[in-house]
Design brief:
The protein has helices spanning 9-21, 26-37, 41-53, 74-90, 94-103, 109-125; strands spanning 24-25, 57-62, 65-70. By secondary structure, it is mostly helical. The longest helix has 17 residues, at 74-90.
């Protein structure tokens, strides 16, 4: 997934269904997204076929239906997409992304506390000093 094209919000929604269920038919994916997206069966089938062509999902036949499963891990997709965003918008500087999130108020005080704890754990694992 490192060099793959970014995924759209709809493609990610489909993958979330597959990640949650392990595998699903077109009808099952459509039903899972119906309340939120109201997609036609043919739209879901087309999107799954395109994802299969890209190698993001695999399919097998079960009777007259195709059953799909994700071939990429959620964490790998997140890593790839955040990396692409960081490269494109922040010249590859992850600290610039974090600064932006903090400066724009996207991270509240509670989240900052959780981030400090996470940083302290990371430092401790690497044998560095503890965060204050």
């Amino acid at each position: 997934m490192a060099r793959a094209q970014p995924l759209s919000d709809l493609q990610i929604a489909i993958l979330r269904v597959l990640w949650d269920r392990g595998e699903a038919t077109v009808a099952q994916v459509q039903a899972a997204l119906q309340a939120e997206r109201g997609l036609a069966h043919t739209t879901v089938a087309t999107l799954l076929s395109r994802l299969a062509a890209r190698g993001v999902v695999a399919r097998r036949s079960e009777g007259r239906q195709h059953v799909y499963r994700a071939t990429v891990e959620e964490q790998d997709v997140k890593r790839s997409m955040v990396s692409a965003l960081t490269e494109r918008l922040f010249a590859g500087d992850p600290s610039a992304l974090v600064h932006h999130l903090i400066d724009e108020g996207e991270i509240d005080a509670d989240e900052l506390t959780r981030l400090r704890k996470l940083l302290a754990k990371k430092r401790a694992k690497k044998g560095g000093r503890r965060a204050r």
